[in-house]
Amino acid sequence: MNLIDRYVAEVGKHLLLIKGRKDIEKELRSTLEDMLEERAKEKGMPADESMQMELLEEYGAPQKVAETYNPYPYLIGPRIFPFFMTILKIVVAAVTLGLSIATFVEIVNLSPITTMDVLSAIGHGILNIISASIAAFGNLALVFALIERFAPAAEFKMDEDKVWHPAELMKEPEPNKVKIWEPIVAIVFTFIAISIFNFNPQLISLYYLDGNTWHTAPILSDAFFRWLPLMNVAWVVEIIRNGMLLRTGEETVSTRLTSIGVKLLNIFILAMLIAGPSVLALTTESLTAAGVTDPDALSALTIFADKGMDIVFGIAIFGTTVDIIKTLYKMFTQK
Amino acid sequence: MANTESLENVVLELRRGVIVLAALSQLTTEEYGYSLLKKLAELGLEVDQGTLYPLLRRLEAQGLLESVWKLEESRPRRYYVISAEGKKILPKMKKEWAGIVSVMDKMLA
Questions:
Q1: Which CATH architecture has domain B2-108?
Q2: Do A23 and B32 touch (CB under 8 A)?
Q3: ipTM metric
Q4: Among A26, A160, A290, A307, which lies 20 to 30 A Cα-Cα from A223?
Q5: Domain residue ranges of chain B, discontinuous segments joined by +
Q6: Cβ separation of A31 and B33 shorter than 8 Å?
Q7: Domain segments of chain A: what residues?
């Protein structure tokens, strides 16, 4: 391996994320060989190592050469940065709102209420908000970095200001248009769900008063929380999709395909929930403690916990399948 | 020192602006990267390799150039030539350039 080969390989190491790396290396080697040949001719002597060194020194440090092939050396480039900021603001606001409500509920449920407990709950709530916001920032940055690398540019013409004309008011409503509040509401509620299920699952409990003391019994079982990571994936992708809708104001092939992907994932999760043990942690003991003493009611509720949810999930699978068919129909009929 | 640096930066920016037009205008016949570099230098426009090669790739990605690998003297060379789209856009760019030169000549006279 001569110096030129080593140099090309060194440049290549810094081009790992650049499309057409092999082509760039091949062209670089060919150029360097041309240049070396010309120098040898000018000097009237065969090319040697010192000549190669001189040439490579002039050509520049491998890293600098590689950098010239990367016109957008950003983790999240200017094309999608405003979109990223919009989503981040909504997400942080939703996280703060969701966890503030959770902290409030926690404080209300304190029994007996002492100043120390209230301060401790508030401190805990603030720490939760900070850690959830940092986690949200990290996850969003990761997803947007992936979009920056792999998403087709045509789907993200975000920095182009659309020219508006009053004649647009006379147009018939467009079927692909989405109302601005729909994605905002979806993002806020999805984040509230993420915050509650991931950071405050104890809120989804059966609350009951025993004398002067409030008690809670969890409603959801481990069989539900086992699938939470996959649910998180579906929720995060759904947030991104709604962010795209917020930015473009209309459904595109990408948003519809993403929607179908999320729905297929939801069907899979629902099917797994049906196949596994009951997602409800309602037992005769917890229901009795919560004040359900009628034997018929107890029996009905425990049967519901065991089998009823499967029917609910089955209906949800049917509804989601219908949704997928509707989305596909729209994809092929509304250009 | 700072003034020299600023001047160098301005000159660099000015050159960058014209390289696209210069390259497209010289690629009506096939050239490989290094031969184009020399051709531009002979005509008086010294361009850094680190500027020209990425630019050629970008123009190809934009559909203004086409390229093909050829084996010459046992060395593979990538030849670039202006595409049909590039041919359409070149006269418009030339016109735009003439306009800029005319305006700047008036301003700097």
A1: Orthogonal Bundle (1.10)
A2: no
A3: 0.84
A4: A290
A5: 2-108
A6: yes
A7: 3-67, 81-333
